[in-house]
Amino acid sequence: THFGYQQVPVGEKAARVRQVFDSVASRYDLMNDLMSLGIHRLWKRHAIELAGVRRGQQVLDLASGTGDLADRFAGIVGPDGLVVMSDINAAMLGEGRERMLDRGRVGNVQYSLINAEKIPFGDDRFDCVTISFGLRNVTDKQAALDEMFRVLRPGGKALIVEFSHPLTKPLSKAYDLYSFSVLPTLGKLIVNDSSSYRYLAESIRMHPDQETLRSMMETSGFERCEYFNHTGGIVAIHRGYKL
Ligand code: SAM
């Protein structure tokens, strides 16, 4: 157990993902800032804007990690709203909860160990469901999208922030160089673990591109699906509605 949370049983890819995040949990925020040169903060800010969440609403944040989005949402929904902060990994969720308590977020945040592929909530429940830099780690992405759709109330929306595919060849080349040599080296220096960051680079390359993810959302039933490219397509924010 970690921080009193029991790990959930998972398959092989998931076990690898767990190992990666177990190994980086405590220095996760620092790595995020270094790896993205701080730009992840802008990506997340835009996601919050696009979510359009209001006071009193209920938000489910999947793969919350250390809870950057959950923290912002908790401020927006206020004391009458609710944010469920969740992650499949007990170490990450434990770090996240500590972080939220440090920020003074109490009262409207619930913590839950959740596999995005099988969300333990009933249908039509949340105003907004988000997953930021989490979907690419999920083994069955279509199942996760189906589940996100299911737990949304009609009129609710889903937001997916994820690394995507660079829009131009030169950027793509530079990005590969960065991901496959700079990143693992940073990983080695900072958390003494280059293989975790090599895994991350590979998972980014394998992740469906912008249009593919959009059509996967449509397959799950989402409507008015659109995406916003950031930093030349290195990151894309997808949004879809349950109508
Ligand atoms: N959302 C945070 C952010 O934007 O900084 C954290 C993202 S972190 C890169 C990815 C998280 O996804 C990890 O904490 C990992 O444990 C979690 N994760 C991996 N597979 C998952 C799954 N199947 N369901 C839910 N979370 C998962």
TrEMBL record:
Keywords carried by this UniProt record: Menaquinone biosynthesis, Methyltransferase, S-adenosyl-L-methionine, Transferase, Ubiquinone, Ubiquinone biosynthesis
Pfam assignment, any one: Ubie_methyltran
Known catalytic reactions: a 2-methoxy-6-(all-trans-polyprenyl)benzene-1,4-diol + S-adenosyl-L-methionine = a 5-methoxy-2-methyl-3-(all-trans-polyprenyl)benzene-1,4-diol + S-adenosyl-L-homocysteine + H(+); a 2-demethylmenaquinol + S-adenosyl-L-methionine = a menaquinol + S-adenosyl-L-homocysteine + H(+)
Pathway(s) the chain acts in: Cofactor biosynthesis; ubiquinone biosynthesis; Quinol/quinone metabolism; menaquinone biosynthesis; menaquinol from 1,4-dihydroxy-2-naphthoate: step 2/2
Entry GO MF terms: 2-methoxy-6-polyprenyl-1,4-benzoquinol methyltransferase activity; demethylmenaquinone methyltransferase activity
Residues that, per the record, bind S-adenosyl-L-methionine: 66, 87, 115-116, 132
This protein's record includes keyword Mitochondrion: no
Top EC category: transferase
A GO biological process held by the record: menaquinone biosynthetic process
UniProt cross-references to NCBIfam families, sorted A to Z: MenG_MenH_UbiE, PRK00216.1-1, PRK00216.1-5
Record function comment: Methyltransferase required for the conversion of demethylmenaquinol (DMKH2) to menaquinol (MKH2) and the conversion of 2-polyprenyl-6-methoxy-1,4-benzoquinol (DDMQH2) to 2-polyprenyl-3-methyl-6-methoxy-1,4-benzoquinol (DMQH2).
Protein name: Ubiquinone/menaquinone biosynthesis C-methyltransferase UbiE
Species of origin: Imhoffiella purpurea
